[in-house]
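Reopening this one. Same input as before:
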Amino acid sequence: MHISFILSTITFTQVWGYVKDVAGMVAVIGVFVEITPIKINPISLICNKLGNAFIKDLKKDIKDLKTDIGTLKDNLDDTKKELNNKIDKNKDTEDERYVMQLRGEILNFSNSCIKKELHTKDEFDHIIDTHAEYERIIEEKNLTNGRVDIEFEYIQEIYSELLKENAFL
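Same output, byte for byte:
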């Protein structure tokens, strides 16, 4: 049988029928079998297209949320720095006020001694402890002392005399 004989006996309708049958089988097989070299899988392709269409807006929303979170984190960091600066400034102000309070207490005690007011040993011990606290803070904060040293020397002289004579109130 020659090819010319075969071609003369087959009609176009028969050829078209064979082509449709083969195409149908390829389509059915293509749905269930993924051919590796061609890498065409209609189900995977359709699912990917549908999946991307469904989550397109979701991906954009996630990206926007990440941007918003980054902005919020930056704002939070800035606010944290501002608060820490304010806390440090407030602490310094409070330390200065405390030093002024201790200084005032020492100077008032010295003034009362100058006026010859009598004090108990406990009052002297308290003012000595107050002076020690005052000196610790002054050194820690690198502040200047001023008149307190002179006044405290006077308090120590009186304390020494009272100790020798046992003349506390």
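So the earlier flakiness isn't reproducible anymore. For the record, The radius of gyration is 48 Å.
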